[in-house]
Structures are given as C-alpha cells and as structure tokens.
Amino acid sequence: MTQLLPAALLRAIDELGRLPGVGARTAERYAYYLLRGDQHIAQKLARTIAELHSGVKTCPVTFALIDASEDISKLYSDPSRNKQLVAVVEEPLDIIALERTGQYDGTYHVLGGAISPIDGVGPEQLHIPELLARLKADQVEEIIIATNASVEGESTALFLQRFIQENGYEVKMTRLARGIPVGVDLEYADQITLSHALEGRRIL
Amino acid sequence: MTQLLPAALLRAIDELGRLPGVGARTAERYAYYLLRGDQHIAQKLARTIAELHSGVKTCPVTFALIDASEDISKLYSDPSRNKQLVAVVEEPLDIIALERTGQYDGTYHVLGGAISPIDGVGPEQLHIPELLARLKADQVEEIIIATNASVEGESTALFLQRFIQENGYEVKMTRLARGIPVGVDLEYADQITLSHALEGRRIL
To answer: Which of A139, A200, B43, B183 is most buried, with most CB under 10 Å away?
Structure first.
C-alpha cells in the first residue's frame, strides 16, 4: 500500500499517539483538527509544549511543581500555611485536588509516585528521606497520608506509617476518610467502600 | 486562590484542552505526562505539530492531503487508478478508510465537509464545482457518493445527486450500502439500519 497520508501528518499522528490513553484514531483526529484549523493554533500548542520543561521545575522541599523562576513552592513559603501539618501525596496534581477544597492550610509533600513492585517502584524511588528531614526541621505535628485509594496507595501509606515509626519519629499520622462519595446511593456503593463507611461512622 | 500550577504548565494545559473532545482533566493528564517524561519526547511532539501546516497541502484536483513537495495526489496521478470512477467523501481521512479495504481502484474527491445549515455550511463551501469539472475532464462514468451515514451526509448525497442531474451530466451515481455491520447481532441493530438492510437484501 502506498503511503496514504503526507509524511508530516503521519509524524504528528505518531507523536500525538504517545499521549496517555490516545489510540491511532484519536491521534488522527487531533492531528487533523490542528491541520484544518488556523496555523497559529498549531504553532501556539507546539510552543507551549516545547517550553514546558524549561518553564517548570520541582520544589526542592515539597517536590511540588513550581515556575522555573521560583526557588520554593508558594504553598510552602507562604507564612499563613501551617508547616507543622503536612499532606503527603503521590503526584503534584493531587495538590490541586486538595487545594480546591479550600479546607486545607497545611503544606504538602509529593512522594513522586507510589510503591508498586510490578512497575519496579520501591520506597527508594520516592521522596521519603526528604519527608523525614522535614519532620525534624519543621517540627511537624501531623502527617496526613493522602495517597490514592488504590492497592499501591494503600501499600505506600502502610509503608510510610511503619517507616516513620521505626525511625523513631513521634508524629500523629492520619489518612483521608474512606466512605460513600457525596451524591452516591447506598445501593451503588461497593462492598469495600461500604465497609470503610461503617467502620468510620460518626456520632450525630 | 493563588496560582497552583507553574504558568508554563497552565499554558500547555490550556492549549491541549483545545483539542477535540479533550476536557480539563485530560489536558492536565497529557501535560503532566509530557512534563514527567523525557524532555525530548515533548520537544519531538512540539516539532511535529509546528511542522504540520508547512509539510502538508491539499491536492488541487482531488482535495486529498498531500506532501507539500507533491503537485498532485498519488491516488490520482497513479496510472493504475481508474479515473472514470470517483468516490466522493467528506473529509481527507475518509480516503484512508476506503483504501484500507483494498477493494477500490478508482480515484477520490474530497468535498471538505457536508452540508449543514446549523454549522453554516452550504453547498458553496464544498468542492462541488471542481467535481463537475472532473466529470467532464476525466469522462467519469460512476460517482460513488461515500458521504457519512449522518443527516448531513445524507442531505449532501441527495443535494449532489440532484445538482449533477440538473446540470445535465449523465453519470451513474451510487451510494455505499447501508446494512448490518459485520459481527453485529440482529437484536442490537437499530431500526433504521435494519430497514436499510431489509431494503437492500440480496439474492443468495
């Protein structure tokens, strides 16, 4: 079969197809959209992608994503944030989810993933030593282990809890409540979630 | 709320969110994937997107997408293709779908859309005059109207059929068969498809 599409279009489809969850058809649709639209839309997208790495760096204390021009995360340096309260999350984007609640005034610590033997991620790949350093330096009183509610997230939470205790740190450790999400009918809640909701029931 | 993400990341999320069917969460996921991965993956994607418009042009005869270095679509200039048979499609990518069948040796004509009053697309926006010119120049014997099986596609097919007749061109016009897709159970076929399948039934 002869080559049916222009080489430049095929290259764009190939590269767009590397994005997570994007198959060949979706990549074709994206590329064709960019090709059909005004040239400056494609140019602007290209420029923002090209400047992504140079414009972003990782905070050396919290491992949140920060502007390349910043030294430290504003969510840490802001004096109104309680440094003695640390929410430990897996990924930088998890911070946004917690910030959107408007209910949290502590600081964050991004682990950079979760323990997952299948993916070859052990505790040594995560920012755990840096967390221990913060416990001392900031006299942390409470760690909220806000890893995902997945097997990996739970293992990581358990590991962290033990590791911090074994290293002789006395700090209150909490975990986000598991229960029935707002707006979900009881009959649609899965067994495990429902067990958690029972266990964590509160006095009215 | 202070700005939670680096400006460069926000810009990339914004631009990725313009892709068709991509919401804020998906755009965040794409941007974070590019940021987390090796820098040259992002650079390569940026380059291919930036070079998309300059590397691709439209064939002046068939309106298929061709390399900027080409004069005319290979699917037209190839002497083994039957120029007296023309498949009329809405979009350039429809050509790939037909070519993948390996059953077609005619040429193509891309309309550049379908008639859709809601979207403000009338016949005058489509490459219909150029199709009429080909009918004469190539002594076309059959036009396969291969527009989509949507309301717009059907309207366009009907319009084309009448327009060509009214302009005094005597040419056989056909439409792709409608029926039950291979592998689909009768009980899952919708009413209209099933009606088409009944109408178009074949003697065994």
So the answer is: B43
